[in-house]
């Protein structure tokens, strides 16, 4: 705390006493002189004390404002329904040019009419509770008229010496759209599972009988090429039914410690015959210190076989497939498969992994859907990027085996 006020008051007091001494001839050292100096000292001390706390308050307010400005969430302070303050995140969220465009506005001017009553209830509740309220969702309009969903919490505060409300929130429009998309996908998967279970069981038994009789007729007839075509198509139907069953019926997979590099090498060895027939060369690069993973090996092999077959079929004239295995983080590994195929059109990228969406002439889309399901069961991610005429890149991200996994296995 500075002593400027005390020194100033004492100097002024001494100056007045000296003036009395020389102008009026009064004695300088008297009892009331001491009292006067003490009072001047006390007044100066109070002044210094007040200046100190005013400065600290101002510094606290400045720090508070800097903190609010640095927040990624939008902050809106309003008294009643009038906006008094907004931070830069709120300016950006509302697509305003500056804060002046928002300060002074009525919050209901940009609140969807269906949510106005909800806002009023929350403001009244904040005044009663005197604590931060739980998060609530609202529909709001930006300055350019576009609607978005705003998730926010409110609380009663004091701002500028007056009772106000602080609202802290963020734009959740993209998250809400993604949630709705996932829900729709989940509903599709549930419906597909129900359909698959019924269709597979209804078709498989007659298929077995038909196939047996055709093989019998084939042995007794000269036109064997016709039977070959029929048998090929029956095998194709049977493979579709098998994929249906895999999607519809959850398998009791046993997850164990696995060597991702060795799994990939086994798959490449298995598929080498097909690559040789199609003039395709697979090049594999393995990074250092690839950790083990917790997996169901057969399921992962199925994923890699499906993805490599897709890459081979995307290069009817032959080409190269590049596979790299790397450790991206201490607890993550990824496999990247890049081909030089025809690529996938941008409008089809959004439908990858959905049933019956495929770029193949005779495909069903169930193969990639199965891949997504298997990778999700491994707590991983399957990411596609593609450019028509250049090729497709597939990234499989899987969690690495951690110390917690090892500890759990030892305990078991």
Low-confidence stretches: 405-412
Class inferred from helices and paired strands: alpha+beta
What is the tally of beta strands? 12
Shape: elongated
Helix content: 40-55%
CATH structural fold name of the largest domain:
Heat Shock Protein 90
The major pleated sheet works out as: 5 strands, antiparallel
What would CATH call the class of the largest domain?
Alpha Beta
Strand content: 15-25%
CATH superfamily of the largest domain: Histidine kinase-like ATPase, C-terminal domain
Name given to the CATH architecture of the largest domain:
2-Layer Sandwich
Radius of gyration, in Å, reads 38 Å
Can you count the helices?
Answer: 11
Strand order, largest beta sheet: 2-1-5-4-3
Q: What's the number of domains?
A: 4
| SSE arrangement, N to C | HHEEHHEEEHHEHEEHEEHHEEH
- Mean pLDDT metric: 76
Intertermini distance = 64 Å
Q: What's the topology here?
A:
Blueprint: H1 4-24, H2 31-70, E1 74-79, E2 82-86, H3 88-93, H4 116-129, E3 136-141, E4 147-159, E5 162-171, H5 173-219, H6 224-248, E6 256-258, H7 260-277, E7 280-286, E8 293-295, H8 297-313, E9 319-329, E10 332-339, H9 346-349, H10 366-377, E11 381-387, E12 391-399, H11 403-411
Parallel strand pairs: 7-9
Antiparallel strand pairs: 1-2, 1-5, 3-4, 4-5, 6-8, 9-10, 10-12, 11-12
Helix pairs in contact: 1-2, 5-6, 6-10, 7-8, 8-10
Protein traits:
5-stranded antiparallel beta sheet, Beta-Lactamase, 11 helices, 4 domains, alpha+beta, Helix Hairpins, 412 residues, disordered C terminus
């Amino acid at each position: 705390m500075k002593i400027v006020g005390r020194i100033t008051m004492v100097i002024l007091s001494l100056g007045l006493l000296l003036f009395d001494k020389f102008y009026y001839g009064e004695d300088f050292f008297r009892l009331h002189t001491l009292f006067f100096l003490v009072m001047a000292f006390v007044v100066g001390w109070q002044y210094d004390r007040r200046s100190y706390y005013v400065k600290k308050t101002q510094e606290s307010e400045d720090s508070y404002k800097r903190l609010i400005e640095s927040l990624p969430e939008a902050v809106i302070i309003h008294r009643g329904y009038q906006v008094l303050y907004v931070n830069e995140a709120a300016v950006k969220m509302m697509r305003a040019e500056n804060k002046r465009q928002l300060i002074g506005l009525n919050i209901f001017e940009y609140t969807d009419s269906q949510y106005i009553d909800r806002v009023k209830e929350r403001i009244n509740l904040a005044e009663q509770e005197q604590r931060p309220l739980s998060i609530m969702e609202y529909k709001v309009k930006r300055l350019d008229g576009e609607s978005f969903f705003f998730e926010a919490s409110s609380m009663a505060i004091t701002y500028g010496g007056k009772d106000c409300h602080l609202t802290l929130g963020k734009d959740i429009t993209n998250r809400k759209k993604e949630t709705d998309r996932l829900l729709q996908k989940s509903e599709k998967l549930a419906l597909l599972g129900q359909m698959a279970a019924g269709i597979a069981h209804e078709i498989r038994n007659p298929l077995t009988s038909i196939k047996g009789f055709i093989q019998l007729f084939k042995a007794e007839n000269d036109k064997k090429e016709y039977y070959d075509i029929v048998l090929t198509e029956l095998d194709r139907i049977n493979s579709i039914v098998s994929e249906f069953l895999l999607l519809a019926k959850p398998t009791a997979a046993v997850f164990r410690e696995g060597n991702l590099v060795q799994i990939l090498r086994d798959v490449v060895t298995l598929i080498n015959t097909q690559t040789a027939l199609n003039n395709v060369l697979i090049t594999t690069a393995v990074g250092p210190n690839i950790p083990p993973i917790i997996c169901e090996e057969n399921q992962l092999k199925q994923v890699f076989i499906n993805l490599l077959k897709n890459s081979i079929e995307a290069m009817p004239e032959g080409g190269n497939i590049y596979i790299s295995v790397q450790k991206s983080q201490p607890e993550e590994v990824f496999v990247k498969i890049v081909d030089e195929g025809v690529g996938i059109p941008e409008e089809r990228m959004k439908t990858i992994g959905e049933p019956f969406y495929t770029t193949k002439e005779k495909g069903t889309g169930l193969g990639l859907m199965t891949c997504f399901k298997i990778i999700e069961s491994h707590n991983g991610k399957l990411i596609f990027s593609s450019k028509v005429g250049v090729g497709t890149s597939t990234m499989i991200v899987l969690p690495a085996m951690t110390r917690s996994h090892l500890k759990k296995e030892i305990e078991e």
